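Sequence design from tokenized structure. All designs in this work follow the same two-part layout: the structure record, then the generated sequence. An example of the structure record is given first.
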């Protein structure tokens, strides 16, 4: 077994046994994404003939690059929090020994290339340190294919060898989704057996048997058979994953059926009317969304302009920035960790606004 194969096997096993994202309930940026970036980074390192002594640094940076993300929040500078959490894991014995060069890549991977390279150089970084930094960033970019081909803009790739890995990255995600799909189909079959027998079904035990990436699929199949309390919990956990495409007409009636709610930082769910930040009468909220023109009336909005701008310039190829003023009654739910508002856009005026380029 080669050094690269050994690293992939080792870290995949570590993540399976002790998923460091479990507490944050990350899905889009969790263990599956970490393993993909690990594989892609090491494949790219192999193509670039990187010395074996550098591979452990690349591997650790790839595995832990997104641990600074809370839930599904997209924060441009989550790398700094990730570097701190990585150091904490090392202090707890989760990773030994602490790798300062890996921490440096984690810290700067979420900011613009030029800014990250300047910071690495200022800290005494070498050409090899910069190269390893860009390798991990390219691997992270390649795994955008987990959201579909439209989410990868190949002009962002920094190495010609990374371009050559696009077909491999596509196959990697296809195989992973196939394995997860088999598991979720088994869970849905179990739920249908409960329904057919007249037994009450609950969200939590079924979700525990299902990969988070497929929670929306599970929820779509069983939501009508859940109690209002369980339906609200299922929405709070499944909706942010967005691994399936459902039109607003699917989600809006379900949100309306459980009442407006807020998901707090500790993941507890409270009625929106009982949340202090929502008790502001009927004052309209200014909300933003980064999306293509055809998706401008989607449900997911944010009060944070910088987050919407990053979606418009970084996560959605061909997207624009949109703005609306929404009454409180149109806000169906609010996820505080990600500053995401679920909005019923019916009848709202949505305007395009100019954007400036966000860091890649």
């Amino acid at each position: 077994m080669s050094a690269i194969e050994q690293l992939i096997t080792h870290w995949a096993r570590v993540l399976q046994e002790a998923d460091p994202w479990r507490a944050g309930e990350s899905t889009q940026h969790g263990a599956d994404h970490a393993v993909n970036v690990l594989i892609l980074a090491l494949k790219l390192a192999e193509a670039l003939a990187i010395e074996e002594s550098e591979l452990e640094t690349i591997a650790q940076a790839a595995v832990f690059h997104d641990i600074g993300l809370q839930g599904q929040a997209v924060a441009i500078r989550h790398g700094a929090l990730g570097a701190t959490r990585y150091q904490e894991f090392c202090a707890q014995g989760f990773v030994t020994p602490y790798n300062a060069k890996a921490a440096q890549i984690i810290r700067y991977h979420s900011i613009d290339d030029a800014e990250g390279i300047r910071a690495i150089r200022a800290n005494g970084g070498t050409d090899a340190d910069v190269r390893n930094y860009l390798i991990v960033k390219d691997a992270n970019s390649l795994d955008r294919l987990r959201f579909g081909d439209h989410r990868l803009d190949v002009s962002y790739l920094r190495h010609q060898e990374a371009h050559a890995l696009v077909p491999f990255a596509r196959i990697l995600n296809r195989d992973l989704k196939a394995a997860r799909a088999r598991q979720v189909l088994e869970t849905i079959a179990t739920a249908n057996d409960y329904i057919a027998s007249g037994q009450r079904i609950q969200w939590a035990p079924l979700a525990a048997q299902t990969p988070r990436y497929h929670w929306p699929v599970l929820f779509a199949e069983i939501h009508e058979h859940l109690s209002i309390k369980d339906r609200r919990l299922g929405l709070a956990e499944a909706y942010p994953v967005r691994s399936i495409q459902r039109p607003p007409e699917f989600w809006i009636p379900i949100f309306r059926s459980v009442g407006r709610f807020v998901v707090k930082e500790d993941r507890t769910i409270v009625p929106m009317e009982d949340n202090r930040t929502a008790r502001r009468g009927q004052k309209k909220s200014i909300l933003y969304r980064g999306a293509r023109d055809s998706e401008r009336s989607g449900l997911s909005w944010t009060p944070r302009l910088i987050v919407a701008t990053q979606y418009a310039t970084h996560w959605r190829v061909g997207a624009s920035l949109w703005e609306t003023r929404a009454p409180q009654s149109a806000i169906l739910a609010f996820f505080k960790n990600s500053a995401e508002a679920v909005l019923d856009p019916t009848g709202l005026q949505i305007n395009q606004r100019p954007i400036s380029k966000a860091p890649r």
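Residues 274-281 have pLDDT under 50 and may be disordered. We note this feature because it recurs in several other targets discussed in the main text.
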